[in-house]
Design brief:
Translation Initiation Factor IF3; PhoU-like_sf; 333 residues; DNA binding; PhoU_dom; Methane Monooxygenase Hydroxylase, Chain G, domain 1; SpoVT-AbrB_sf; four-stranded mixed sheet; coiled coil; single chain
Length: 333
């Protein structure tokens, strides 16, 4: 329910306005309490000031194990809890192993306390030290290098390179979790956005782009797994066609990311529109490669067709990033 208040002047120069009693009661604000103000454009956000800024969450893991327990820990992390207490009547050895592995896969987490029925994990990173821009930039570098090496692994039938690509997907996933955690923090409190030095709309754009980069990393990993199924190298003609498709797909992603990062609206629009046009050209190139594969053994052609599809989808994700960049460059209502 929207409530309105009239601004009054006290002391001849101070503007004052009352706050709703129900809101004050729910947030433990009373006479003498301190509140914080955060300006954002033509809005002014007010929030109660708290001494302890570390948020703690407790989760009963009695019926959780394996992937389900891992996802639970990751969800608590992304949701923004600084201290995560995992409790059960008796935590099994297997659960402890899963918790340690989940903790090691997330940036900044460390096991703080461990007893028979309780494991406490704490985020040791200061939120003000995190940079969503740097995290997304790093995701871009890793995801595109994975895609490049995955295509090279096919041409050279290099199983070691393919396995290395698969391992690097963990790095992309780890950064994706960091970006998601930062973004959700900006939704929860204006202070998080102020510490980042970025408007929340921009944080949303970065989070949207990071999701696309995470998917590109997944497709690079898929290509690497498919490569391990080849017993003989692909022909030079097919290898060159895949390389050319990758180069064009990378241009789409690079143009989309450059458009997202630039502060020049005209330049962002130019780069983003170029990227979107390239996506259509890639679709045509992918169809020509599919025609080339029809001459091969059906099983081999199917594997290569899946690889072509993954590269094409990576270009589509670059097009999605370009679309986000266009929205970011558009005039603010």
């Amino acid at each position: 329910m929207v409530e309105t208040r009239k601004v009054q002047v006290t002391g001849g120069s101070t503007y004052t306005v009352s706050i709703p009693k129900d809101w004050a009661t729910e947030n433990n604000v009373s006479a003498g309490s301190e509140v914080e103000f955060y300006p954002e454009g033509d809005s002014l956000f007010l929030t109660p000031r708290t001494e302890d800024e570390r948020t703690e969450g407790t989760l009963d893991i009695a019926n959780l194990d394996g992937d389900e327990l891992t996802r639970a820990v990751m969800t608590m992390y992304v949701s923004g809890f600084d201290i995560i207490a995992l409790e059960s009547g008796r935590i099994t050895t297997e659960q402890r192993r899963t918790i340690r592995e989940a903790t090691q896969s997330l940036v900044g987490l460390e096991v703080l306390e461990e007893t028979r029925d309780r494991v406490v994990i704490r985020d040791l990173l200061d939120s003000s030290e995190l940079s969503i821009h740097n995290a997304v930039t790093r995701m871009r570098l890793i995801a595109l290098s994975m895609l490049e090496d995955a295509i090279a692994a096919i041409a050279e039938l290099d199983d070691d390179m393919a396995r290395d690509v698969i391992q690097r997907d963990d790095d992309v996933d780890r950064l994706w979790m960091v970006v998601s955690r930062i973004f959700r923090a900006t939704l929860r409190t204006p202070k998080a956005a102020e510490e980042l030095g970025l408007p929340r709309e921009v944080c949303f754009d970065y989070q949207s782009a990071a999701r696309q980069l995470e998917r590109i990393g997944d497709h690079a990993t898929k290509i690497a797994h498919l490569t391990l199924n080849f017993e003989e190298p692909v022909s030079e003609e097919v290898a060159e066609a895949l390389e050319e498709l990758y180069v064009e797909a990378r241009k789409v992603v690079d143009d989309g990311m450059d458009a997202l990062f630039t502060d020049d609206a005209d330049e962002a629009s130019r780069l983003a529109n170029d990227a979107r046009e390239k996506v259509q050209a890639i679709d045509e190139r992918a169809r020509k490669i599919d025609e080339l594969l029809r001459e091969l053994d059906p099983a081999r052609a199917q594997l290569l067709g899946l690889i072509v599809d993954s590269v094409s989808r990576s270009a589509d994700y670059g097009g999605n990033i370009a679309e986000t960049a266009l929205q970011k460059a558009a005039p603010t209502p």
